[in-house]
Amino acid sequence: MVDPTNHNQAGEVAPSTVDKQAPTVAEENAPTTKEPVATDIPTANTPDPKAANPKVNPDAAKETTAPPKQEKPAAAKAAPAGDKPAAKAAKKEKPPAVEDKPFVEFMQQDYLPALQTAIKEQGIQDLQLSFAKQKLPVAGLGSAEECWQVIGSWQNGLRQFNVYFPDEDITGKKGFSCNEGKRPSTLESFLIDERKITLDLLVFGLVQRLNGQKWLGRN
Q1: CA 218, CA 124: separation in Å to the nearest integer?
Q2: Are 106 and 98 in contact (CB under 8 A)?
Q3: What is the pLDDT of residues 22-75, one digit of tens each?
Q4: What is the pLDDT of residues 142-191, one digit of tens each?
Q5: 115, 206 Cβ separation under 8 angstroms
Q6: At what angle do helices 199-212 and 112-120 cross, to 10 degrees?
């Protein structure tokens, strides 16, 4: 009986189990053009299922979780209500009104010069003005007490007027009298209904009174 011929003796190499299995495995896992099918063949891009499982690998959740978005730096906070810009510099205080000066100072420095100018503007060029404390030149009073007066005259003294300040205060009682070469007229009140006495009012009131006497302008 003839012994069966050995593959090695015949110069042939017996196929290994790998060669036998390779075509089968390749055929089973080869992709088809019909439908995409997932395979069990591991690739370099496929993570290890155990490594990607957070239950098995605690660090998996850290690796797979997207990092939180970084918030943009908040804008500079508004300054607290108490830190408001410095208030504007306080306005300069107004200088005191001329009417607030001491009585005699106001009369000499402000009232007489203003009155001189106003009467001259009415055509009186030889006006003489003075401010003095003397007796009231009113008929029938005899030796009356002295008080501060503004005395004005022109036409060589033929026309004269007096403004009286018995309270030594421009806001107090005031009187007026005039004469034209004769004895002074009766004392009358002057600017008694005005709530506020100012330099302009004292000048305007006297000019109006003299004009009513028909002493100014072409009168």
Answers
A1: 10
A2: yes
A3: 455 445 555 555 555 555 555 555 555 555 555 655 555 555 555 556 666 555
A4: 445 789 999 999 988 889 999 999 999 999 999 999 988 777 677 889 99
A5: yes
A6: 40
User: How would you classify the pairing of strands 146-154 and 128-135?
Assistant: antiparallel
Q: CA-CA-CA-CA torsion for 180, 118, 174, 165, nearest 10 degrees?
A: -90
Q: How far is CA 209 from CA 122, 165, 177, 180, in A?
A: 13, 16, 10, 15
112 and 41 part of one domain: no
Q: Please state, in angstroms and rounded to a whole number, the distance separating the CA atoms of residues 66 and 49.
A: 19
Put the strands of the sheet holding 175-180 in their side by side order.
128-135, 146-154, 159-165, 175-180, 188-189
Question: CB of 132 within 8 A of CB of 148?
Answer: yes
End residue of a domain, out of 5, 32, 58: 58
Total number of domains in the chain: 2
The answer to whether residue 219 is domain-embedded is no
Range of the domain at 132: 102-212
* Within a domain: 95: no
DSSP line for 187-217: PEE-S-S-SS--HHHHHHHHHHHHHHTT-ST
Residue with structure tokens 């090695």?
8
Statement to judge: residues 113 and 45 lie in one domain? no
pTM value is 0.55
Arithmetic mean of pLDDT, 100-106: 93
